Automatic annotation (TrEMBL):
Gene Ontology molecular function: dihydrolipoyl dehydrogenase (NADH) activity; flavin adenine dinucleotide binding; NAD(P)H dehydrogenase (quinone) activity
EC code(s) of this entry: 1.8.1.4
Disulfide bonds: C44-C49
InterPro entries the record matches: FAD/NAD-bd_sf, FAD/NAD-binding_dom, FAD/NAD-linked_Rdtase_dimer_sf, Mn/Fe_SOD_N_sf, Pyr_nuc-diS_OxRdtase, Pyr_nucl-diS_OxRdtase_dimer
Cofactor stoichiometry and binding remark: Binds 1 FAD per subunit.
Organism: Noviherbaspirillum autotrophicum
Entry cofactors: FAD
Family: Belongs to the class-I pyridine nucleotide-disulfide oxidoreductase family.
PANTHER family, sorted: MERCURIC REDUCTASE, PYRIDINE NUCLEOTIDE-DISULFIDE OXIDOREDUCTASE RCLA-RELATED
Primary enzyme class: oxidoreductase
Lineage of the species this protein comes from: Bacteria, Pseudomonadati, Pseudomonadota, Betaproteobacteria, Burkholderiales
Protein name per UniProt: Dihydrolipoamide dehydrogenase
Length: 478
């Protein structure tokens, strides 16, 4: 068996791993090996962010034609060519993956090691059956995989995950989506708008990452106008039914239904790829789920020479977070044992549904009751939103009593991706509601809705007044 001695070993060549490799090598000039046991190309490019947005873009085009008559525009009957839709998804997906692979190709071949890694102890890794790597420090960046509820296995080959969807050559007749998180909502709504019969099953009453009950209620109501959304539903039986899968379920009202679908999409979240690493041999502390305990500011596991980053740590499974964590982990692995806190940014998450969902900073669930004021605005009568016939949703932002500092926000509404960025920047900068109100606002724009919510919060901070039911900023003429 070959032997290799390095300063830093990085396990996983996804977004976090590639960033960790560059940080350890470029910042500190260390001898680094990048170990990968699967295909090159990140989760985001191959089966996540980018192919899902390609599918959503096609769905938005179809939805635009369907809703055009509401503007007095009649484009005629739409014809959705499923094969053409999926051909573009796969083609553009492959382009994005190609960019990532091209970046890997520019890495010194001597720094690349193919094969699945497992720990022999805290400082030694075995890669495949061919190489032992002795490393001064290690970065675990092995990513995640879709979680499949055991009871879904009976669907056999009709059971798919999001990775499989983006390999389809045509759109199916029907899909049952199990899970109402980000993946389930985005893919489910997109398929529905592309003519696929879709039912979404949620074991609980939540959708995506929303914790604010008022925003959740508005978002759920908006989705139910378009989608067959079945929250608080129990799956009683799943089985193959010829070329389909039959699902028997019990709804919140106790009624039972039995239906057949072309496919069952498992979208109940993702789990870190850690089982094959033999982490128990390292001596680091693990939680009850087998996940390493780590410092989110340094990405260090305990006081060991092992660092973790990206989806593997199950903290914030998002691309921008994976890159930040990879940079911190790689930097600290390269300078070990001189471990230092790195930059962690204000939490920001967006769901590309319609209406879009977003959360920024501290969510409703994490705030201490009585410590904050809520500023709210409904998009029902917000000027620009009504102009575009996208007037659905609610924004609620949270401001700290005493300081007036913006703590966070949750929202469902049009262009929430852009509002969320403004709010995240304000949170990250430590801005107060008053400072935000001093910023320029154009007219007519959706951001005027944000100004209304800020005025609402300011009134409550200064006067303790109840929420404003209507504000002049919301009317088209102001």
């Amino acid at each position: 068996m070959d032997q290799m001695t390095v300063d830093v070993a990085v396990i996983g060549a996804g977004s976090a791993g590639l960033t960790a490799y560059k940080a350890a090598r470029s910042h500190h000039g260390k001898r680094v090996v990048l170990i990968e046991g699967g295909p090159y190309g990140t989760t985001c490019a191959r089966v996540g962010c980018m192919p899902s947005k390609l599918l959503i873009a096609a769905a938005e085009a179809a939805h635009g034609m369907a809703t055009a008559p509401e503007f007095g525009v009649h484009p005629g009957a739409a014809r959705i060519d499923g094969r053409a839709v999926m051909a573009r998804v796969r083609s553009e997906r492959d382009r994005f993956v190609g960019y990532v692979v091209a970046g890997v190709d520019r890495i010194d071949p001597g720094d690349l090691l193919r094969g699945c890694a497992r720990f022999l102890d805290a400082a030694r890794l075995q890669v495949g059956e061919h190489t032992i790597v002795q490393a001064r420090s290690v970065v675990v960046a092995t990513g995640s995989s879709p979680y499949i509820l055991p009871q879904l296995a009976a669907a056999g080959e009709r059971l798919v995950v999001n990775d499989d969807v983006f390999a389809w050559e045509d759109l199916p007749e029907s899909v049952a989506v199990v899970g109402t998180g980000i993946i389930g909502l985005e893919i489910g709504q997109a398929l529905q708008r592309l003519g696929v019969r879709v039912a979404l099953f949620g074991r609980g009453g939540n959708v995506a990452q929303l914790s604010d009950p008022a925003v959740l209620d508005v978002a759920t109501g908006a989705f139910r106008q378009e989608l067959d959304l079945r929250l608080n539903t129990e799956l009683l039986d799943v089985r193959r039914d010829g070329a389909q899968v039959r699902i028997r379920s019990r709804g919140a009202d106790g009624s039972e239904r039995s239906e057949s679908f072309s496919f069952l999409l498992a979208a109940a979240g993702r789990v870190p790829n850690l089982q094959a690493l033999c982490l128990e041999r390292t001596g680091i502390a693990l939680d009850t789920r087998g996940l390493p305990l780590f410092d989110p500011h340094t990405m260090q596991c305990g006081d060991s020479s092992i660092f973790i980053a990206g989806d593997a740590d199950h903290e914030r499974p998002l691309l921008h977070e994976a890159i930040d964590q990879g940079r911190i982990a790689g930097d600290n692995a390269g300078r070990y044992p001189d471990v230092r806190p790195g930059l962690r940014r204000t939490p920001l998450a967006v769901v590309f549904t319609d209406p879009q969902l977003a959360s920024v900073g501290q969510g409703w669930r994490s705030l201490r009751p009585g410590s904050f004021a809520v500023g709210a605005v409904s998009f029902d009568n917000q000027g620009r939103s009504r102009v575009m016939l996208q007037n659905r949703g609610l924004l609620r932002l949270y401001a700290e009593h005493g300081s007036g500092r913006l703590l966070g926000a949750e929202m469902a509404g049009p262009r929430a991706e852009h509002l969320a960025h403004l709010l995240a920047w304000a949170c990250h900068s430590g801005m107060t509601v008053e400072q935000m109100l001093q910023m320029p606002f154009y007219h007519p724009v959706i951001e005027e809705g944000l100004r209304s919510a800020l005025h609402d919060a300011q009134d409550k901070l200064l006067k303790g007044e109840p929420e404003i039911e209507h504000c002049t900023d919301c009317t088209p003429g102001m």
